[in-house]
Structure formats: C-alpha cells, structure tokens
Amino acid sequence: MKIELLSALIPLFPLLGFLINGLGFRRVPKGLAGVLATAAVLASFLLSIYLFSSFSGDSQPLVATLFDWISVGDLHINFSFQIDQLSLLMLLVVTGVGSLIHLYSIGYMSHDEGFGKFMAFLNLFIFFMLLLVMGSNYVIMFIGWEGVGLCSYLLIGFWNKNISYNNAARKAFVMNRIGDLGFLLGIFMLINTFGTVEYLDVFKQATSLEMNDSTVLIITLLLFVGAMGKSAQIPLYTWLPDAMAGPTPVSALIHAATMVTAGIYMVVRSNVLYTLSPLTLEIIGGIAIATALLAASIGLLQNDIKKVLAYSTVSQLGYMFLGLSATAYTAGMFHVITHAFFKALLFLGAGSVIHAMSDEQDIRKMGGLRKALPITFVTFLVGTIAISGLPPFAGFFSKDEILAHVFEHNKLLWALGVLGSGLTSFYMFRLLFLTFFGEFRGTEEQRHHLHESPISMTLPLMVLAVLSAIGGGLNLPGNGWLSHFMAPIFEGSRLVNPEAFAESTIEHSTEYALMAVSAGVALLALVIAYVMYISRQAVPAPESAERSLPEQVVYNKYYVDELYEAIIIRPIRGLGDTLYSFGEGLVDGIVTGIGWLVQKTSAQLRLLQSGSIGFYVLAMVVSIVAIFALRFFIRL
C-alpha cells in the first residue's frame, strides 16, 4: 500500500465517522452511531500498527505529499504528512487510547439524547489531533492545533443548557487563543528566518546556526507560549480544571493522550531549535516545576473526584516539561505515553464511580465502594500506584528517568521534583482511600443504585490497567527500546550540542540511590495518607467549615482565578463597556447630526422651488456665468 494512501486513510476514517454521525445524528440509531464512531478510530489504530510494523528505528522520515496547497512567491507549503518515529508513537497513543475512550463512551453516554452528536465530536477531535501529529510542517500542525481547540470547546460545553458549563468551554477557548497567538507569531518568524515551515528544511538550516542565537530564542519562546496554552502551564493553566464540566470521556480524551500533550509533542518535534536555545530551556524548567508544585498542592485539598485528577494532569504536564528542559526529550515522551495509560484509566475509573453514584462527584459523599465496584476499584488502584511513581508500574520508570536527567542538570530542580512526586502520591492515595475504603457516606438511594459498570466501560479499564502496569517496559533503565527507537529524531540536536546528549556521568550506585529516594518519598506519602484516611478515618471538612489561612488559600486554589478576574477580566470588560458607550454616543451623534443637517438644508432648498419662470431663467444665467468664470480661473 502506497505511503500517501495509507497516510491519508488514517485521519480520513475519523473524519468520515464525524460526517456520518454529525449529519445524521438524528437519524442514525444510537447503537449504530457508537459502533461507527468506535470502528472509525479503531481502523485508524490498525492502520497505524501496520505502518509502525513496517518502520524500523533506523528508517528515515517519509513525507507523503497529498497536494500542493499554498504558493506565495518563494514560499511553498504542501499539504503533506511526515511519518517518522515521533509521529508513529503519537499515532499509536492517540488512536489506541482514543479507541478505548470511544468504546467507553458507548456505555457512559448511552442514555444521553445527544449521543450521536457527542460521538461525532469525538471523531472530529481525533481527526484534528491526527492532523496535528502527522503534519510535515508547522502550518498543518497549526490546523490540527486550532481544530482540537475548537473540538474541546464543543465537548466541554456539550451539556450547553448549563450556563457554568458554557462558561468553562468559553474559558478554555479564550485561554487557548492567547497561547495560539504566540504560536502563530512563532510560525511567522520561522517563515521570515528560514523561508519555509517544513520540519526537515527548518531543522536542516537550524543546524548551521550558532548556540544562543537571538532569533531562535524568540522563536522558541513564542512557540512555547502556544505550548503553555495547550498544555496548561502557568499562567495559562486555569482552563484545564474547569474543563471537567464536560462528560467524563471528554476529560479522559483531553487530559490523557491528546490535546494537553500537543505542547510536549511540539517541543520534542522542534528539539533542534530548543537545543540551540539553552536559555529557553531554563525558562521552561522554571515554569514547569512551578506548575507541577502549584497544581500538586492544590490537589491535596480538592474534594471533586475529577478536579483532583485535573490538577494531577497539570502537575504531570509540568513534569514532562521539566524533563524537556533538561534535554531529556525521550524521557519526556516516555512520560507522555505512560501518562496516557494511567491518566485515561483514572478518568474513566472516576467516570465509572460517578456513573454508579448517580452523577455524584464529591468524594466526601462516597466511601466503601470497593465492594460494589470491584473491577473499577482494582483498575483504579493500578492507576493510582502507577501515577504515584511506585515500582514496578509504568509511572515509576518514566518519572524516575525524568528525575535522573534533572538531577544531572540541576540539583534544586531535582529536589523540588521529588517533593512534587511525594505530593502526587499523597493526594492520589487520599482520593483512593476516601472513595473506595471506609463506610459509605452517600444517601440510601445512592447505596441502592450502586452497581458495577457494563462491559463496554469496564473493558477499557482493564486494558488500560494492564498497560499502566507493564508500560514501563518500553524504556527500562540502560538504553531501553524507546531510547533506541527515537534516537534518529535527535540527530540534529546531537550535532548542534553534543554535550547535551553525552553519556550520563551518574554512577550506577547513585542512580539506584535516586530511584530509592523517589520511591521512598512516594511510599512515605502513601503511609501518611493511609494513617490519616484509613486508620484515623478522617473525612474532609464540608464547604462551610472554618479553615486556617494557609488551608483556605490552598483550598481556594491560591485565588488565581479571582486574581485574573480582578486584574485582567474586569479592567478589559470595563474598558470595553466604556468604548462601547463612547462609540455608541459618538456614532449615534454623527448619524443623528447628518440626518438633522439634511433635513434642515432640504427644508430651505425647497423654498427655491417657487414656480416663477423669471426666477428660473435668472438662476440659469447666474449658473452659466459661474461655470464660465470657474473655467476661466482654472485655466489661469
């Protein structure tokens, strides 16, 4: 099968699923709509596997040009896809995890009257995400980038009869547009600097530039602004927790394998440019660790099961960027993959709990659910262990690899990273213990309704649990498979800065000690959570309870939303209202004045129409004299 046809079919299947369900969502039966949407993504997954199996770690990138798209002077932009190690990994993750989320949605959303429309939006989301990761240039990436932003708006606000959900969708859309402006300016600078947006051409030219080039610094910073929006880094992170307004499958899709990892993918794809700009990497490292710790600390006191996982996602994205800041690009991508497994598992597990609890999301009203939801409990436990960084599950290996590189790069960042790892372990086991252990704290009606989810929901949980348990085998310490497979992606970076890719100078004994410290801190946090919420059976205080000042600040998410409201939203809204009032008065005044002037002038002119022939003859003579006089003076 030709590479062009194969590459085109992968995004085409989800697009067809969107068109069928989107145009006929009122006519296509629910059962058929779910099967069509899931089959479309599954077909893309099978094609991705076929493509992956025929591509070795040493293969050169393949560019499949579908058609010539834009030609302006010397600038030529093709609509083309690039198949290489990085795009193949993302294809497998997006379509694989996406297929499981589509299958889960069949059970979770089956009673929703907009089921067909929902499945159509999911397909459209996957289509744009595939464009983002398959494009051979920054413009195709930007199309996918904007597309997933649009779909996130549609999916977050899917239940649009609720005003707060609409506000959350609008917030996500606006904050992403802020980041997208930076990304777009970065693309314009790429065109101005390199005369092209094709990855292969840009990176080939970039290898001839000097380290710390000022132009590259500006380009990388602008591109990172885009990543801050999509991947929820300070200060553009507050949209992501609010995105929990959407149905749970949407939360899993956005937070696990697709939209929020777009920023990580973009930086890894542009690794040559970022390696050329160490200052940008230092800035990324500072923002990343601040984001990781801020979000983790907020997660300590959240009581909404999805909000805890949302802040966990923000924190984990900080870890990924922390790895990238130490030029540990493979480790960052490794954590993207493992995070896709366990975070999708945790969100879908949370959805199973919410489904059983009649849409209740407050963990203070749960407890003792492990008996009623055995499959959900076991799989959620696996996801919790994985994200907490406890061996031998997937999260331990990917997080440890990031921390090892950061230790070599900056000891302070490593210490803060270990602290963040401990916080992650504590709030995740707090969530697990309060949800599944102890006595049931809900209503009798909820107790009566408790039941395990259908197989369409539990099967994806079981598959993701297995992947979360064994996923660490992708890149075991000591030149693992993933490191070898992705090595060709970083040839340009090795050329411009060989020191950044030199063999690690950390001794094996030190590496083992770092692993022990990381795992030990996570284990200690687990024990503290166990003592508090199992031994002492503590339950978080209700909303109305009095809290100490530090606790109140953390509980209210450091009042960041309120700060943005006070210093950005209200002033801009006030300015807009003022300009509107001024403009309305000015425009209305001009329009009214012109109307008044015309009216008065016409009233006077009509007096000249007296009906006297003598006056008309006089007017004609005067006019002719005036015309001759005017022509005479013009000639002079």
Automatic annotation (TrEMBL):
Any one cellular component term from GO for this entry?
Answer: membrane
Q: Which Pfam families does this chain map to?
A: Proton_antipo_M (PF00361), Proton_antipo_N (PF00662)
Positions of the NADH:quinone oxidoreductase/Mrp antiporter transmembrane domain: 137-424
| GO process terms (BP) | ATP synthesis coupled electron transport; electron transport coupled proton transport
Q: Report the residue ranges that make up the NADH-Ubiquinone oxidoreductase (complex I) chain 5 N-terminal domain in this protein.
A: 69-119
In the bilayer, the protein is annotated as: Multi-pass membrane protein
Q: Give GO MF terms, alphabetically.
A: NADH dehydrogenase (ubiquinone) activity; NADH dehydrogenase activity
Where are its TM segments located? Answer: 6-25, 32-52, 86-106, 118-136, 142-160, 181-197, 217-238, 250-268, 280-301, 308-330, 336-354, 375-394, 414-437, 458-476, 512-533, 579-598, 613-634
Q: Which InterPro entries match?
A: NADHpl_OxRdtase_5_subgr, ND/Mrp_TM, NU5C-like, Proton_antipo_N
Cell location: Endomembrane system; Membrane
Q: Which domain of life is it from?
A: Bacteria
Keywords for this protein:
Membrane, Transmembrane, Transmembrane helix, Ubiquinone
What is the official name of this protein in its record?
NADH:ubiquinone oxidoreductase subunit L
Organism, by scientific name, is Spirosoma radiotolerans
